[in-house]
Amino acid sequence: MGELPTVKQKQRLLAHANGASLGEVNNTVSLPNQAGFWKKLAAYSGPGVLVAVGYMDPGNWITSIQGGAQFGYTLLSIILISSLIAMLLQSMSAKLGIVTGMDLAQATRQATSKPAAFILWILTELAIMATDIAEVIGGAVALQLLFKIPLLVGVLITTLDVLLLLLLTKVGFRKIEAIVATLIATIFIVFLYEVLLSSPSIGPLLSGFIPSPEIATNNGMLLIALGIVGATVMPHNLYLHSSLVQTRQFKRDEQGKREAIKFATIDSNIQLSIAFIINCLLLVLGAAMFFGTTSDLGRFTDLYNALSDNAIVGAIASPLLSTLFAVALLASGQNSTITGTLSGQIVMEGFIQMKIPTWLRRIITRLLAVIPVVICVVMFGGRENAVEQLLLYTQVFLSVQLPFAIIPLALFTSDKRLMGPFANRSWVKYTAWIIAVILSVLNVFLIYGTFAGIG
């Protein structure tokens, strides 16, 4: 006879059988009893870390640094506005998961027909695949820059990331959160060091947080601004967050839910503030080092080379700066890989209620992202400009899918029949709808601008 299952194993089996979101980790992270504020916050912290990864992935890098290189500090205001929008949307996502016990995909499936849910699943999977493609490209380029590994080989190596995730799930979900936090810290330290070396102008930097009318009138600036917004607010994060908050063992009564919402929101806002700082560092790096010298920074390799070129960045140029940039890029790619595979699991189970073995689902999710990159590398002989052009198109996919995540989220969290006393207050409801409309319109312009070549 085998050993009897532990209490934690029984909880996982029950959650999986009941169709809970991320059943194998749902309601498995214990919380301290009779603890103070900081101890409780530490226990609730983690989901915000995994969510924040999507706001500083390789897809953000080129857009932010190009914005600084071309227009100085002016677009810092766009990063600020985007981050405030992200904080509101992610808090709504966390609240949905805590109050209803459903993630956004499950709630959408319950409110729609099977055919509609299937179409939404396909769209969401495309968005997750697009996100994962950006991480594959970022990781492969970083491996090439650091170790001179051919791009195709680097792409294939990134498929092994999924094996790392499978291993990590065996040692506990908190370990995953800790590793991701460490990688985020690596990215933060690298860019803080590089920005400090670049000695940015503090006055223009601070004034950059004040929105400028020029952003709306300068077509080139407007397109970069739209790109920053499109790369900052990620649709898969709304599905992810509504699921991850359910990993905590909070009491499922009104008081327990209220406390869980409070700490989940604080956790999310802290981590998104860190993501905001990192995105600002990226733009400030572009402005301080490259504004007035070059704006030809369309590829990761361009940035890597520019950081060691005295003719561009002056006396501080060094191979160390370039190497640190590539290390941060690799860390970013690894981080987003973890959250991408988790998001794939959430939407597959939520929209179409398909349950397949965890290891198989994660391998499929990863392979779906790798195949387009491999085809691109083979067709274009590993030319980085072609591969990184694919990264640009992934941002368009994300833009297309965004309204299909924001609008249901606004609907569900404003519904008093579903949310009870936790339904959005009037100001939150109207703000959420204004955001949904504005982001939808802006993303149409972003898609048009990408293909029409505005500016």
From TrEMBL:
Subcellular location: Cell membrane; Membrane
InterPro entries linked: NRAMP_fam
Record keywords: Cell membrane, Ion transport, Membrane, Symport, Transmembrane, Transmembrane helix, Transport
One GO CC term, this protein: plasma membrane
Topology with respect to the bilayer: Multi-pass membrane protein
Domain of life: Bacteria
GO annotation (BP), single: iron ion transmembrane transport
GO molecular function: cadmium ion transmembrane transporter activity; manganese ion transmembrane transporter activity; metal ion binding; symporter activity
Pfam families (alphabetical): Nramp
Predominant place of localization: membrane
This protein's record includes keyword Transmembrane: yes
Entry's transmembrane regions: 71-89, 118-143, 149-168, 180-200, 220-240, 272-291, 311-331, 363-380, 392-412, 433-454
Role of this protein: H(+)-stimulated, divalent metal cation uptake system.
Family classification: Belongs to the NRAMP family.
NCBIfam families: nramp, Nramp_1, PRK00701.1
The protein's name: Divalent metal cation transporter MntH
